[in-house]
Amino acid sequence: MASNTTRSKILAPPGDVVNGSLTLTNTGSLPAAFSLTESSSTNGFSAKNLTLTITDTTAGTVVYDGTFGGLEDGVKQALGEVEAGDARSFTFTVALDEAAGNSEQGKTASASYVWDAVQAEGQTTDQ
Question: What pLDDT score was predicted for residue 12?
Answer without folding.
Answer: 65
